[in-house]
Structure formats: structure tokens, C-alpha cells
Design a protein that fits this description.
There is one protein chain. By secondary structure, the chain is α/β, with parallel strands linked by helices. It folds into 2 domains: 6-57 and 177-240 and 339-376, FAD/NAD(P)-binding domain (3-Layer(bba) Sandwich), CATH 3.50.50.60; 109-172 and 242-336, D-Amino Acid Oxidase, subunit A, domain 2 (D-Amino Acid Oxidase, Chain A, domain 2, 2-Layer Sandwich), CATH 3.30.9. It is 31% helix and 25% strand. It contains 8 helices and 18 strands. A hairpin with a 4-residue loop joins strand 13 and strand 14. Helix 2 packs parallel to helix 6, helix 3 packs across helix 5 and helix 4 crosses helix 5. The protein binds flavin-adenine dinucleotide. Flavin-adenine dinucleotide is lined by residues 21-27, 46-49, 52-56, 58-62, 199-200, 224-228, 232, 246, 248, 283, 332-334, 355, 357, 359-363, 365. The site of flavin-adenine dinucleotide has 43 residues, from helix 2, strand 2, strand 12, strand 16 and helix 8.
Length: 380
């Protein structure tokens, strides 16, 4: 095994008060929260890759709380209390992002959110919009959080299969890479230590086993590895945490692009947005891949990519798009469970797990990080 020097052991590898595993949005914000509450804490973040390698720098950059078809499905599956609670957490997260980071060069644009629906879903959404808005009013303070708009607002073609659209002015978009860059700068500014490119192989109370370096000690450990948590947890950890691959396509420059904002389709499984003035990003459709998307392996599923492009051809025939118009593509891994709520639970004494943010971690991670810091400092 590689042997660390005395100099390394007494600096980079020295015992920490809190050791955070995973440098995604949750881990970075939790590290910052811990330092804010107690600047004397020695906080070390360990990340297996040279850059965070999960979802935080690979997502679509929606600061959103969900479209009508997703929220109505959640309402039916989990009941009004749970649906409203998750929307409240997401909405508060959007407000916190706006307050803390919108002015810090993260390409924050509050263009609002749209849900597009095809013929099969329009009557169902229209029929339940009042019910949904009634429940959301206590969170957003608006009588009509989602309101119908004409698709002609963003779609020029008369042959589009988009039969209806709904809009809210509260959602925003951002540049995930820039957000993580700002968080990293904040972490460095307050003296949070980092070990990038170091994989945690096992976690025990008071110590972790790190590839190359062996055992590192810490009084408290926070696991923010999200979709990759199962590898580090014992079989009796009660929460389901399933890795699911999501992929994204980014277009070449499209002249006269009329699409602006965060767009949701079919319970949030498909999402698209503008990137700058002339590029189109589309992602998701994991529901069409079934169990094949249940993997923690990065990579492409060309059949899904084709389906995403086909959907754009149906919705926006005016651009004449084909797969070749999307030269850039990548994937990321989200964590799914049996419900919509994140996991925040001790795996063993002084080892806390905070994660499973599904497709909403941009909005949700700040609140989860705050709760995790509270618990670790015994204020939860
Ligand atoms: C394609 C895609 C699109 C998405 N779009 C949106 C969106 O528009 N809006 C939204 O709100 N959410 C979106 N999400 C979800 C959102 O990105 C996640 O919920 C959020 O980033 C989770 O943050 P996290 O810090 O908890 O986990 P992650 O970002 O996954 O971070 C976990 C980190 O732990 C590290 N790690 C794992 N195992 C180990 C180990 N053994 N040792 C050391 N380090 C380890 C990983 O490398 C990773 O960096 C999307 C996700 C994907 C994949």
C-alpha cells in the first residue's frame, strides 16, 4: 500500500472533527453550514473523483418545484400533506438559491417554468388545476401557481403535438458547474479541507477507509454520496436508495430559438430548457428505459437519446431537428427511493446519511444540508 509521509499525515490526512464523504451540492453545502455554525470545526471533504462525479455538475440546472402532472401524480400516490411538504422544501430551496447565489455569476435566470401536455393529458390537468393551485397557494402565496398559457408563446408550428401548456413565474435556471464552483470557493475561503480523487471504501464509527491512504479518523462522519450510498451501508440500513441513470443532450446553436425557461413533460420524466439564447438542452425519459436505467454506471442509451429527439421533432417541427443536431451528451446518476422525500438518518453512531434527492436536488440540497448540520451538531 502507498505510505503517506509524516508531513501528509499531520496536514492533509490529519483527524477531522467532521468528515464529509462526497463533494456534490449536499456535501459542499453541509460542510459550509457546519463551519457557519462553528467556525472552529475542522471539516474535511473527501471526493472520489477529480471533479464531483454524481449528479451535481451533470444535471439540467432547473431550480424548480415540479409541474402539474408530476405534482398531481404525487398527490394521488402520497397524499396532499406529503406533496405540499415536498413542494414547500423545493420552493424554499429556490428562494435560498436566489437570495444567496443569484448575484454570484451562476447564470441565474428566473424565466419561469412550463409544463407541456399532449392531447391525452390536457383534460385531466385542466380538470384538476384548481385543486392543485388550491393546495399550492399556502406555499407560494399565489392563488394561481400554475396557469394555462398558449403554446404559441414558445412554439411556432401549427403541426406541433403540444396541445396545451401551463406556466408558473417562480422557477429559474442556473449553470450547475458555476454553482459548484462558487460553493467550492466559499468552502476554501472558510478553511474547509479537501481530498479530491480519493475513494472512501468503507465507513465505521470514527473512521473511514480511504483508497491509497488507509484509515482516516473523524469524530463525526456525514455521508453525502447520494446514489452511491448503498456501497457503503450495511444491508440492514432501512431506506431504499437506488441509482438511476439520467442522460442529457445539448444542441448546436439553433437560430431563432423561441424556447426560454424550464419545461417539464409527463410527470417530470422529460425536461428541456434553453441554454443561453440559442441552444436547447433536453434530458430524462428514464421511464422509457425501465430497469436498464437502474444503474450507477455513467454512459449513453442511444434508444433513449433517439426518443428525446423524436419528442422534440413532434413538439417543435419548425426547427427540423435530428440526432446530429445534438453533438453534446452526458449522463449523471440520481438516487431514487420509494417516496419523494430525501433520506436523513444515522447509519450508525456518529455516521449520518443525507441524500436521495432524486431529480430535485438543486432546489432541495440546501435544506437537507442545513438539517444534516443541525443533527450532527446535536441541534436537530
Ligand atoms: C441528468 C440529471 C439531471 C438533473 N436535473 C436536475 C435539475 O434540473 N434540477 C434539480 O433540482 N435536480 C436535478 N437533478 C438531480 C440533482 O442533480 C441531484 O439531486 C443533486 O445533484 C444531488 O446532489 P448530492 O450532492 O446529494 O449528490 P451527488 O451530486 O451525486 O454527489 C455525490 C458525490 O459523492 C461522490 N462519491 C460517491 N461515492 C463516493 C465514495 N465512495 N468516496 C468518495 N466520494 C464518493 C460522488 O463522486 C459525487 O461527487 C438531475 C440529475 C441528473 C443526473
Amino acid at each position: 500500500m502507498f505510505r503517506a509521509s509524516h508531513w501528509e499525515k499531520t496536514t492533509f490526512l490529519r483527524e477531522a472533527d467532521v468528515l464529509v464523504v462526497g463533494a456534490g451540492l449536499t456535501g459542499l453545502q453541509a460542510a459550509l453550514e457546519l463551519k457557519r455554525r462553528n467556525p472552529k470545526l475542522d471539516v474535511l471533504v473527501i471526493e472520489r473523483a477529480p471533479l464531483p462525479r454524481g449528479a451535481s455538475t451533470r444535471n439540467a440546472g432547473f431550480a424548480c418545484f415540479g409541474g402539474p402532472t408530476e405534482l398531481l401524480a404525487d398527490l394521488d400516490a402520497y397524499g396532499p400533506e406529503s406533496m405540499v411538504k415536498t413542494v414547500r422544501q423545493r420552493y424554499e430551496g429556490i428562494q435560498a438559491l436566489e437570495e444567496n447565489y443569484a448575484e454570484r455569476g451562476i447564470d441565474w435566470q428566473k424565466l419561469g417554468g412550463y409544463e407541456v401536455v399532449e392531447e391525452a393529458a390536457i383534460t385531466q390537468v385542466q380538470g384538476r388545476l384548481q385543486e392543485l393551485n388550491g393546495l399550492l397557494a399556502e406555499v407560494t402565496g399565489r392563488a394561481e401557481t400554475w396557469s394555462p398559457v398558449s403554446p404559441s408563446y414558445f412554439c411556432r408550428s401549427t403541426t406541433s403535438t403540444i396541445a396545451g401548456a401551463f406556466y408558473n413565474p417562480l422557477e429559474a435556471q442556473l449553470h450547475p458547474g458555476k454553482l459548484v464552483t462558487v460553493l467550492l470557493a466559499d468552502c476554501h475561503a472558510v478553511g474547509i479541507r479537501f481530498l479530491f480523487g480519493s475513494t472512501v471504501l468503507a465507513v465505521e464509527e470514527g473512521r473511514v477507509e480511504v483508497e491509497d491512504f488507509g484509515s482516516l479518523k473523524a469524530e463525526r462522519i456525514l455521508l453525502t454520496v447520494n446514489a452511491f450510498a448503498r456501497e457503503l451501508l450495511s444491508d440492514d440500513f432501512p431506506e431504499a436508495i437506488r441509482p438511476v441513470r439520467n442522460q442529457i443532450l445539448l444542441s448546436r446553436k439553433i437560430p431563432n430559438l423561441k424556447i426560454e425557461g424550464c419545461f417539464h413533460f409527463h410527470e417530470g420524466y422529460v425536461y428541456f430548457r434553453n441554454v443561453g439564447e440559442d441552444r436547447l438542452l433536453i434530458g430524462g425519459a428514464r421511464h422509457l428505459a425501465g430497469v436498464r436505467s437502474e444503474t450507477d454506471a455513467f454512459g449513453a442509451n442511444e434508444a433513449i437519446a433517439d426518443m428525446l429527439v423524436n419528442a422534440l421533432q413532434r413538439w417543435f417541427p419548425e426547427y427540423g431537428l435530428s440526432r446530429a443536431d445534438f453533438p453534446d451528451a452526458w449522463s449523471g446518476i440520481i438516487a431514487q427511493g420509494d417516496g419523494k422525500e430525501p433520506v436523513l438518518r444515522y447509519a450508525r453512531q456518529n455516521v449520518l446519511v443525507a441524500g436521495r434527492l432524486a431529480g430535485m436536488g438543486v432546489a432541495l440540497s440546501a435544506a437537507l444540508a442545513r438539517q444534516a448540520a443541525n443533527l450532527l451538531l446535536n441541534k436537530g
